[in-house]
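Dear support,

I submitted the protein below through the web form. The confirmation email said the job was done, but the results page showed an empty box. After a refresh the structure appeared. I'm attaching both so you can tell me whether what I see now is the final result or a partial one.
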Amino acid sequence: MNQLQQLQKMTTVVADTGDIASIARLKPVDATTNPSLILKAASQPEYAALIERAVSLAKTEATPDARRRRALTETAVAFGAEILTHIPGLVSTEVDARLSFDTMGTVHEARRVIAAYAAAGVPRERILIKIASTWEGIRAAELLEGEDIHCNLTLLFSFAQAQACAEACVTLISPFVGRILDWYKKAEGRNYTAEEDPGVKSVARIYEYYKSTGVKTVVMGASFRNTGEITQLAGCDKLTISPALLDELATNTAVLPRRLDPARIDSGLLLPRLDEKAFRWQHNHDAMATEKLAEGIRLFAADLVKLENMLIQKLEG
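What the results page shows now:
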């Protein structure tokens, strides 16, 4: 077996792309999207029909602001619904990154996304609402989980974020491996082997804490820079991987040992519950996490604005 096939026997493989053709070819269990991926896919001619349908639905709204918001939602849902026809599992759809510090704004946006999926015939059980792992985002996810709207907490870089997500009983977290590596390479001016990769170590620590304490939240490593990071996390609950790296794994026939295994983890003790002050202090104390969370929100918001402007042109045209 190649390494992708070996990985699939111990980890749920998720495609990190908005490109539907790649998903149909690679046949992952789940798929994740974000504003950057949707923007890239939306510019491709083969997906023009999805965009036109979203714009057509948005034109029924009464005001320019409502049409803009509806167009963004329907575009994300159009791609998500189409992706779901090619996979057996879940698709993650991200809410507006500009709401990352607005708990109730995030809740209302998530409800709109779920309603749009329902109108498209897609049950909420197949959707994960993707939210940035700010304090406000985690609180929004806690409320949404209480409504059976399941959440994927993304842009997760610190252990404090992971602990707070577990305490909020969110369905899944996406710790960003590669972006952690990027920060340390720049800050320390050195390269890292896969074994010493700080992003890999961060995910392994979270995984071990969750499994040792009985936390049910799923750990899904994300944002990989190379296959070495992936193979070091073989056995993680889920890994979301770009098509290029999935193809690379599929051409490698080396033996892939399991690195993360709950059967090899002893029982541990839950840490004291984080309140807002403790969360903000612990997260703030981690310079890497503080910088990468802020940067990630800015980048997703910037790509969302680009997508929004493209849709506004179509709405006005």
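Response: this is the final, complete result; the empty box was a page-load delay. The mean pLDDT is 97.
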